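Blackboard transcription, Thursday session:
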Amino acid sequence: MTFRKVKSAVMLGLMWLAAALVLLPLVLILWQLVREGATAINWDFFTKIQSSPGDAGGGMANGIVGTLMLLLIASVAGLPVGIGAGIYMAEHRSAKLAASVRFLADVLNGLPSIVVGIFAWSLLVKPMGHFSAWAGGIALGSMMIPLTARTTEEMIRTVPNSLREAALALGYANWRTSITIVARTALPGIVTGALVALARVAGETAPLLFTAIGNNFWSVDPNKPIAALPLQLYQFAISPYDSWHRQAWAGSLVLIGLVLVISIAARYAARPRFGKAVD
Amino acid sequence: MTAVRAAGPAAEPGRVLLDVTGLNAYFGAIHAVRNVSLAFREREVTAIIGPSGCGKSTLLRCLNRMHETVPGARVTGSIEFHGQDLYAPDVSPIAVRRHIGMVFQRPTPFPTLCIRDNVAAGLRVLKRSQRPSAAETDRIVEQALRDAALWDEVKDRLHGGAIGISGGQQQRLCIARALATSPRVLLLDEPTASLDPLSTQKIEELVYALRKQFTVIIVTHNMQQAARVSDRTAFMLDGELIEVAPTSKLFTTPSDPRTEAYVTGRFG
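(Written on the board underneath:)
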């Protein structure tokens, strides 16, 4: 074997190792969750609310429904703003305002999520006088804004300028070109970005701590405090009860399953309708 | 916003349809088109030739107000269409572009639309009162595809994606899309630059046939193409219009020595 071939084999081996190391934590986490949590997953887990502290049985139905409601509020509040800002930044690339928005979006992306929680608390909880699902959903939604704004911008930038020109030359107004041709062409990517943002905030705990705050009982009233899976996990995991610990593992498994479903949906959304575009 | 008159006086071959006077076009500080005055005649094919960077595409893009869509671009002078200045303050560029269609160098089918909807794309943006019904749209689509010599090749896959067909077919699809809104003028910006010889031949035959219904202005860097398809040829150099004449005259007995140097292949 020549030296070059040896070098190639060694480098290839190192890359295999790196790839394996990336996958290892994921596999270990999933293994641990299944091992500890699978036994606690049963019909009751999805249909009943939590039991009294220390009692066996009960489930996390209130947390699952609460998380879904929070994600719904977050999407309604965050996606239109995020996607709109992304379209604006992509279509007015060189505008001063676009540059400022882009910079602010990057700053917001790096903002600790607990700060987002404090923001939502002072903006919503304090004036309203009570914790609520609205506040929690809007806290999560405001985390989705910078994420979707940046992915939307990136996706729209991949649309060739020739398509924009073709639409303008057909007598499309600027706004119509932006929305029905450019954004429409980038739509699979935009939807993927939105779902990735949703998956990202689905597991957020800190922004909910003093907004949604959690609820030990059944509630679907957006004006009231609401349960959420991550909050329940936290509450159960730091409790001294074995049955709650098992349920916390099960809850983690369900939460990861939810994120997985959203991610698979994102993959599915990204497939092009008529095969690959030219250019 | 004043609508650009669609019909105007009855079309009559040889009558001036687009009258360019003292046109200057700029990209920021670059003076791309310099004081060009030129008349395009009804139902003729006019070719604009010249070396790369001579301003021929820019001139073309001024004719349907596409030039101004580039940041920093500016136009002075006037272009009269049926006696109406396209650059008058009350004229909307959108209305101009509906009557003066354009096809670009590379095919630009809309990837999210099927073949039928691609051809109908320009109809979808009409005001509700002017928008044709679904059945009427089908008829217009068929006619446009027939005019673009593409109907027989795609009639069984009208609802298939427009990016599954060949490059030459895509370019004819773009021509059909431009024809569907019944423009008076068709602007072609090096429409065969990205195509193989056979597809090029088809487009050239098409351009030749289209002059019966439309006024065609074609920018090309291929002199043989200009000679094959056009009635009249304009030669541009460094942003200036050097000469415009019937094609056979321009290629055989040009009046300007620079034109002669170019068409005999001494530069460019």
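Lecturer's comment: The CA atoms of residues 30 and 125 of chain B lie 34 Å apart.
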